[in-house]
Known about the structure:
This protein has helices at about 20-35, 40-50, 105-120, 120-130, 135-140, and strands spanning about 10-15, 55, 60, 75-90, 90-100. Strand 4 and strand 5 (about 90-100) form a beta hairpin. The chain contains five helices and five strands, in the order E-H-H-E-E-E-E-H-H-H.
Amino acid sequence: MTSDVLTIDRVRIHPGSVSRDEAMKEAADLLVAAGAVTPAYYDAMQAREQTVSTYMGNELAIPHGTNDAKEEILASALSVVRYDGGVDWGGETATFVVGIAGVGDEHLGILSQIAILFSDEDDVAKLKAAASPEELFALVSAAGV
């Protein structure tokens, strides 16, 4: 992966909880601020969630737009937000909400790296224990994401 897909300014840790929609809005807003997507990408995230949940298991949700939203994606980027209070994601609890935008098919490689990182419960425990956004960023980056 290219190292600029995730930068420290798109990594956050919140002590509480928010709604699924609020978590998706923050993920989208971070990608918009990075210049990776247009504001309309949030609507595409919502549309995707209506057809299939983006909850992936192991406390991870990866909201992303529909295939129809490709024109809303300007660059490949990630946002990583940890909600220590958890987010009710359609009946599942997501602690990590990873917003993703990928140009062309780049999102497939990015998704693969995230899936590998979150498939290991020890790695998830380390991500949950990170004391700062900087530490969380370092752990995700070290995993090749």
